[in-house]
C-alpha cells in the first residue's frame, strides 16, 4: 500500500524536531514545510490554541494537497490571567525572539510569588477537505526568576518542572518528551497511529471520489 505523506506544518525548528522525533518509525512519509516551495504564512488570529492549530493544519493541507499536522501551543501563567497564552510566540511584539519573550515574562512577574504556569499543546491533523483530528495536553510547572539550562527552545529555560527538579531546558529531549505538553499529545497520537492512518485513507478516498463527482459528501464549514 502506498505510504501516506504527512507534512509537519510548523516554522518553529524546536517544535519540528520534537514532532519528527516522535513520529520517526511511524508508517508515514514525514515532510516539513522546507520540502515544498514557499507557501504563505497563516494568520494565527484564533482565540484558542484549538482554533489556531486547526487553521494552520487545514490551510497547509489545502495548499499542499496532502494531510498536515500542526501544533499550536503556549504558556499560560496563572498570575497573569493566562497570558501570554495564544500570544506566546509574539509576547514581546511581532517577530520577537525567544530571549525577548523570556525577558518580558520575567519583567511581568517581577516581585510576584505566585509563579504557577502551564504549557498547553493542541495538535491538529487535517486533510485537504477540512476534516481534522485533535490531540491536546498540558504540563504544569513554575516560572523561575532566572533562566536555567541551554536545551530546548522558547520559554524552556524559565519553565521549572518540580517532579524532575529541572527546567525543560535542563532536560534531555527524552526527558522533556516524557513529561511535556507536546510529548503527551504526541504519545496519544502515536498510540492510535494505525487507526489514524485508516481514517486519513478513508478521508482521502472520499475526497478523490468527491472531486470526480462520484459521491456527494458534505464538506465541513471552511473559515
Ligand atoms: O506557529 P508555528 O509555525 O508552529 O511556530 P510558533 O513558534 O509561532 O508556534 P506557536 O504559534 O504555537 O507559538 C507557541 C510559542 O509558545 C512557546 N512554546 C510552545 N511550546 C514550547 C515548548 O515546548 N517549550 C518552550 N516554549 C514553547 C514558544 O515560544 C512558541 O513560539
Ligand atoms: Mg505561530
Structural account:
The structure is a single chain. This protein has 223 residues and is α/β, with parallel strands linked by helices. The protein has helices at residues 13-23, 49-64, 98-108, 173-179, 181-191, 193-211, and strands spanning 5-8, 29-32, 68-77, 116-126, 132-143, 159-161, 166-167. The protein has six helices and seven strands, in the order βαβαβαββββααα. Helix 1 runs parallel beside helix 5 (181-191) and helix 4 packs across helix 5 (181-191). The radius of gyration is 18 Å and the shape is elongated. The protein binds inosine 5'-triphosphate and magnesium ion. Pfam families: Ham1p_like. Mg(2+) binds at residues 43, 72.
Q: What is the typical, i.e. mean, pLDDT?
A: 95
Stretches with pLDDT under 50, minimum 5 residues? none
Highest-level CATH class: Alpha Beta
**Broad structural category:** alpha/beta
Strand order of the largest sheet: 2-1-3-4-5-6-7
Beta content: 15-25%
Principal-axis shape equals elongated
State the share of residues found in helices, binned by percent: 25-40%
State the distance separating the first and last CA atoms: 33 Å
**What's the main sheet like?**
7 strands, mixed
Number of domains: 1
Number of helices: 6
CATH topology: Maf protein
| Rg, nearest Å | 18 Å
* Bound molecule kinds, no repeats: inosine 5'-triphosphate, magnesium ion
One letter per element, helices H and strands E, the order comes to: EHEHEHEEEEHHH
Give the number of DSSP strands: 7
The name of the CATH architecture is: Alpha-Beta Complex
Amino acid at each position: 500500500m502506498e505510504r501516506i505523506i504527512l507534512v509537519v506544518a510548523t516554522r518553529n525548528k524546536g517544535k519540528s524536531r520534537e514532532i519528527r522525533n516522535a513520529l520517526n518509525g511511524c508508517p508515514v512519509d514525514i515532510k516539513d514545510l522546507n520540502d515544498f516551495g514557499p507557501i504563505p504564512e497563516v494568520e494565527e488570529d484564533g482565540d484558542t490554541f484549538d482554533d489556531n492549530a486547526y487553521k494552520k493544519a487545514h490551510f497547509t493541507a489545502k495548499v499542499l494537497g496532502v494531510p498536515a499536522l500542526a501544533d499550536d501551543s503556549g504558556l499560560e501563567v496563572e498570575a497573569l490571567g493566562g497570558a501570554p497564552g495564544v500570544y506566546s510566540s509574539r509576547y514581546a511584539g511581532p517577530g520577537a525572539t525567544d530571549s525577548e519573550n523570556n525577558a518580558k515574562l520575567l519583567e511581568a512577574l517581577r516581585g510576584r510569588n505566585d509563579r504557577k504556569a502551564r504549557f498547553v499543546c493542541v495538535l491538529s491533523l487535517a486533510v485537504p477537505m477540512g476534516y481534522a483530528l485533535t490531540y491536546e495536553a498540558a504540563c504544569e510547572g513554575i516560572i523561575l526568576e532566572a533562566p536555567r539550562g541551554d536545551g530546548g527552545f522558547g520559554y524552556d529555560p524559565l519553565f521549572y518542572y518540580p517532579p524532575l527538579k529541572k527546567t525543560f531546558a535542563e532536560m534531555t529531549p527524552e526527558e522533556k518528551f516524557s513529561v511535556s505538553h507536546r510529548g503527551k499529545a504526541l504519545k496519544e497520537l502515536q498510540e492510535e497511529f494505525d487507526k489514524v492512518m485508516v481514517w486519513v485513507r478513508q478521508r482521502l478516498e472520499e475526497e478523490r471520489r468527491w472531486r470526480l463527482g462520484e459521491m456527494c459528501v458534505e464538506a465541513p464549514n471552511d473559515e
